[in-house]
Write a structure and sequence with these properties.
binds P-hydroxybenzoic acid; 400 residues; alpha/beta; five-stranded parallel beta sheet; 11 helices
Length: 400
């Protein structure tokens, strides 16, 4: 499916006359799920991109950017690969971006390498994706940013001795399990059980998996699911099985407390502890500006979330590349421009690690609390300038 141009202010097709020369129009192929289980994620990233353009109208000047959107449909990777193929061969894009699901990025990586197209990942979190192509850089996160830090905090701050891990059974879920386990066990904890809990394509009935976790009587239950409706079902099942009353804390990466889903989680979600790189309640000037602009543009009940901010920062990175390369995009030069790039993001200061092309950023330890009848994130601690620990530790596939 072709997704039309959503916002005429964002999309420009005409050549601009600037400084005595015709300025380039840079074509950006955007691969996101605009339909299916991930449609809301596609919308959040897209909105983040739009808000960046709105708040920074001169960011690309004197060049123009044309966004060509393609629907990656389901999380299997196959439709995303087809979309990338079309963007490269038919649309002749200069830059590829988007990619919510890891399989989408994994399937597309060889195409970016073969066609020498810079590929800027705005979500897909499996740590080793950046090792799949020298053309890939990531402005989102690795599952190890949050998972490893949550493992350490579980042992050191929450004083847990034992944990059970439940995870959606595909690459980022396996990665999140490995990350939590590495952080938790290095700090003296013990993972008692590892429970695969269905795939990303549909929300399973979590009851049997959570019952198995409850029966192990751990101090805490670490859960990764790919945000969205999966996350709402997690908190509901945790409540329905009386796990808190049984003394088992629910913790996870911030994927299980996505801002757009918080108010559907209900009071039972209070006390949930997560580590993540963004939540809409972060108190800094750049975030206040983002949240205000977002609500003005998309409605008082709308909110940015981690996916929205990744779209926002991704556009900032693309603008930096376009300006640095004077509108003429060449993959190796684009990666050179991105290495070491720094930005004052709504999530706090970010940088692209010159060594890995992956992001360096703060992680926030947060607790969900009820305030004025709404669930909000209370910031408990900041872990500054966190790198992808999978590559730092050369763990598993990150050793390659
Ligand atoms: C992924 O597929 O890499 C993914 C999707 C959703 C998330 C996190 C990771 O919340």
């Amino acid at each position: 499916m072709r997704v039309g141009k959503l916002c005429s202010g964002v999309v420009a097709t005409a050549l601009a006359f600037a400084g005595g020369a015709y300025a380039q129009t840079v074509k950006v192929g955007v691969v996101l799920p605009y339909t299916g289980v991930g449609a809301e994620f596609g919308q959040q990233v897209d909105r983040g991109m739009q808000i960046y353009m709105k708040l920074n109208p001169g960011a690309f000047a004197p060049y123009k950017v044309e966004l060509i959107r393609r629907d990656s449909k389901n999380p299997s990777g196959a439709p995303a690969k087809t979309a990338v193929q079309e963007l490269i061969t038919q649309d002749q894009v200069d830059i590829l971006t988007g990619f919510i699901y890891s399989p989408d990025a994994i399937a597309s990586a060889p195409l970016a390498t073969a066609a020498k197209k810079p590929m800027l990942i705005m979500n897909a979190g499996t740590a080793w994706i950046t090792n799949l192509s020298p053309m890939i850089s990531r402005v989102s996160f690795s599952m190890w940013h949050s998972g490893f830090a949550m493992g350490e905090a579980a042992a050191k701050t929450l004083n847990a001795k034992t944990a059970v891990v439940g995870y959606t059974d595909y690459p980022p879920g396996k990665d999140s399990l490995a990350a939590f386990k590495a952080g938790f066990e290095a700090a003296g904890g013990k993972v008692l059980d590892e429970i695969p809990m269905g795939g990303p394509g549909q929300v399973p009935d979590f009851t049997p998996f959570f019952q198995r976790a409850k029966d192990r009587k751990p101090d805490l239950f670490y859960v990764f699911v790919p945000a969205g409706d999966h996350a709402v079902a997690v908190t509901k099942t945790y409540g329905a099985l009386g796990m808190r009353a049984a003394g088992i804390k629910l913790v996870g990466p911030g994927d299980i407390t996505q801002d757009i889903k918080l108010q559907s989680m209900g009071e039972g979600a209070t006390g949930l502890i997560t580590v993540h790189h963004y939540n809409a309640d972060l108190d800094n000037a750049a975030n206040r500006r983002l949240v205000a602009a977002w609500k003005q543009e998309f409605g008082a009940d709308s909110t940015p979330d981690f996916m929205g901010v990744q779209g926002y920062d991704g556009m900032a990175a693309i603008a930096h590349v376009v300006r640095t390369l004077n509108g003429r995009i060449e993959a190796e030069a684009a990666m050179k421009a991105l290495r070491g790039w720094k930005y004052d993001s709504p999530r706090g200061p970010i940088m692209i690690d010159p060594a890995t092309r992956d992001i360096v950023m703060n992680e926030y330890l947060s607790e969900l609390v009820m305030k004025d009848g709404r669930l909000v994130q209370k910031n408990l601690a900041v872990i500054p300038a966190v790198k992808d620990m999978c590559k730092e530790l050369k763990a598993g596939k990150c050793a390659q």
